[in-house]
C-alpha cells in the first residue's frame, strides 16, 4: 500500500514538473499586434485642397484712375434721330491697371454743367479688366437729338455741351474730354454700358 502511494505521488510530481517546464512553441510567443492608428502627422502633411480660384486676386491691385487714363469720345453711328458713340480709354501708364464697371459722365459747357441723365445699360455689364500699358477699353454710348416733352422744336433741345467730365469706375477725379457731337435731347439722357476690352 505504501509503495503504491509513493508511486502515485511520484507520477503526479513528474506530471506537474513536466507541465510546469513545458516550453511554449514559437507560434504561441508571437502575439498579434493591434493595427496602428493613423499618424497625426500623416493628415497634417497631406496636400491642402486646391483653391477654387487661384487667380481671383491679381498681383497688382492698382485701379485705372484719371492720372493713368487717356480718353476720347468716338462717334460710331447715326440714324433716325439716334446717335451712337464710344467712350474709349487707354492706359497711358507704365504698369497694368484694373477697370471694372461704369463711368460717371457729366456734360458741360463754358457756363458749367449741362443737363445729363445717365442710364446704365447691362449690355455689356460689368466685368473685371486688366489693361496693360497702351491697352484700351470702351463703353458704348447712345443718345437722341429728337426733342422730347417740353423741349423746343426749333433750335437746340438742350444747351450744347463742349466737354464732358468722365469719372472712371470707383474713382472720384474726372477726365475732362471735348464733346463735339452736338446737343443731347430728352433732358440730356445718355445710355452707357460698362467698360469692355477693345
UniProtKB/TrEMBL annotation:
Residues 1-20 form the signal peptide. Pfam families: DUF4232. Residues 32-51 have a biased composition (Low complexity). Residues 23-62 are annotated as: Disordered. Transmembrane segments: none annotated. Residues 64-195 form the DUF4232 domain. The keyword DNA-binding does not apply. Keywords: Signal. InterPro entries: DUF4232. This is DUF4232 domain-containing protein. It comes from Lentzea cavernae.
